[in-house]
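pasting for the record
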Amino acid sequence: MTEQHVPSREEIETVIRGVVEPTSGRSLLDIGQIEACQIAAGRIRLTLAVAPALAARLEKSASAAEQALDRAFPEWRASVLLTAHRPTAPRPEPKAGGGHRPLGGVGNKDASEPLLPQVRTVIAVSSGKGGVGKSTTAVNLAAGLALEGLSVGLMDADVHGPSLPRMLGISGRPEVRDGKLIPVEAWGLKAMSIGMLVDETQAMVWRGPMVMGAIGQLLGDVAWGELDVLVIDMPPGTGDAQLTLAQKAVLSGAIIVSTPQDIALLDARRGVAMFEKTRVPVLGLVENMSYFCCPNCNHRTELFGHGGARDEARRLDVPFLGEIPLLADIRLSADEGAPIVVRAPQSEAAKAYRSLAAGVAGVVRKLPHRQ
């Protein structure tokens, strides 16, 4: 069997240099600067930094660059993403493991060393807006995957609102060993959150570069070890943190959490569009708070409507992964620090999360390994 050729950065730059922007007649590589180049898991992810005034005009050239890379390396799927930054004053060359390191430490001296080398698949649990139950879904999905027999890690990337320690009942700081943070084990998971490193009441008043630096450290400065899947609880929205994870983590896929009402679905739509732009496969949509069952009479009430996420999944041509009910027990289990799939495995909510986890586990087992 012929071994797959892994393109080098130099080969990729040569292809990009051959793409000409029609208005100026200049090479795309002369107009923009390569900010990140990720080559793994059958995908080439290239990020070009360009002047803000040129970003809209260069979209067609970015698409042409993707097509050129697809032709040059047919065994690889390429994505070219444009980022626009205001010009800044020159900065000195970063030291080993440099850049923004809000969590301290010196980091990896070898910048070429791949992130998460022993993690087979990385799945992002995302939402276009806050307040839809994304973190609760991520925690119970991760615990459910562990119950499916997978080795699972759970990373809290919501730097501004880290809720994972409370939801898992974790207190105290993680151990540091050989310069690496050791994930805390709880409920069959390896878990890490910036909430384990700061006081619970401390406000993380950080700009984008600090947030991106912290996420990079949670990926690279944590001894995750061998995992079948790392579930990342994403921050809400479509900003710097999501772009950093798309660039650095080489995401295997993304799950979008929404509630049924139209306003939440609008934001979920943006989340799907973001992952499609960064060439991250969308594994499906989950409808959270889908319905409410009265604990006294079992009467079912659809407080936020019903079926909106299913219809949206059909419209976007992505899988629909299931419905999660709105129940007080879900909130109670999160407040008490025990995922409901473990705390009350026979409950309606636990069965819904277990069904979701079983479906995702089947997908994970079929996904190609990152390395």
